[in-house]
Design goal:
This protein is of the alpha+beta class and about 190 residues long. It contains five helices and eight strands.
């Protein structure tokens, strides 16, 4: 049975810098930084995929300090935060108890709901460090499979997930405001 034990902070080197990236579970004091980073990255990545109204509605319903604080308090949701010298570089949001019909053949599931890295840190090893930490932590907790949904036209993310062994097993609808989009549902077995 998967456990909900606290993740252990770790230090992983940045691929492009000798400075260390600190990976740890954030506190409620980090909610503002997570909300700001989430808004910034989501808008930069997806602003062209929907109307300004739909984007605003989605951002306001997903990335506010109060919403992030609420998520940080829920036992089925947990985050990892990548920081360097006190600056937030990126985060991962994991969720217990979620599934999709196309995942019915998989057991021991945990969802990787979000992995967001500040645009200025793309290509610097932050995403890889967060992903590897999340996969290792999920395995240590007893999960057998990690799943995620990724926008069908987010080619950079699709390539990244493929590199980490995620394979498409289906699709689901994802709404940005009132705009219905299609996500690939991908899964990775934890060996």
């Amino acid at each position: 049975m998967p456990t909900q034990a606290e993740p252990v902070p770790s230090q992983l080197p940045n691929i492009t810098s000798p400075t260390m990236i600190r990976l740890a579970k954030p506190t409620e004091e980090d909610a503002q930084a997570i909300a700001q980073l989430g808004r910034s990255v989501y808008h930069a990545t997806f602003h062209h995929t929907c109307s300004a109204e739909d984007m605003t509605q989605y951002l306001d319903s997903t990335y506010t300090p109060s919403i992030i604080t609420s998520l940080l308090q829920q036992p089925q949701t947990y985050f990892f935060l990548a920081t360097r010298d006190g600056n937030v570089l990126g985060f991962v949001q994991m969720m217990l108890g979620t599934t999709e019909p196309c995942l019915s053949d998989y057991d021991g599931l945990i969802e990787l709901q979000k992995i967001y890295i500040g645009v200025e840190h793309h290509g610097g090893g932050v995403a890889a460090a967060l992903m590897q930490h999340s996969l290792n932590d999920s395995k240590e907790r007893g999960f057998k499979n990690v799943w995620l949904g990724v926008y069908e036209h987010n080619h950079r993310a699709l390539k990244f997930y493929n590199k980490f062994g995620f394979v498409k097993v289906g699709t689901h609808d994802f709404y940005v405001g009132t705009d219905r989009q299609t996500d690939h549902v991908c899964v990775r077995h934890l060996e």
